[in-house]
Amino acid sequence: MSTHGRAADESTFVRTYTLTRGRTKPRHLLALDTVLDTGPGRPGPAQTEECKEILALCREHRRSVTELAGRLRRPVTAVKILISDLLDADALVVPVTSPYAASDPDADDGPTPQLLAALSAGLKRKWPDAIAYPQAG
Fold first, then answer.
1. Cα 111 vs. chain centroid, distance in angstroms?
2. How far is CA 19 from the centre of its chain?
3. Tell me: the pLDDT tens digits for 33-56?
């Protein structure tokens, strides 16, 4: 690696460290696919420019943790720490919606048989030696 490349890597690391104020873990448990929306609160005056960018992106429409990290070009863990700060300030919220929400109001609110079959097949591929449970019929 060239001297210039090493210096660029070090400056990115230092910037990430200062961005999170040295913190290495978020206060909230956030999955990569956790979806976020703007909330009623406001971030504190000491929030970083990246926090402002996160809020601007979430104002456009709901975004996942992964999407925010990609758009900010920052490590996921650093973005999770910033998101935790924004959640603490109620500037971001995790919307509570049914993952099985259907457009048909008469439809069952549970997962479809096709989704359950696909899940079952995936689990069997992942753990073929697992104990088989009898099929409900």
1. 22
2. 18
3. 899 999 998 887 777 788 899 999
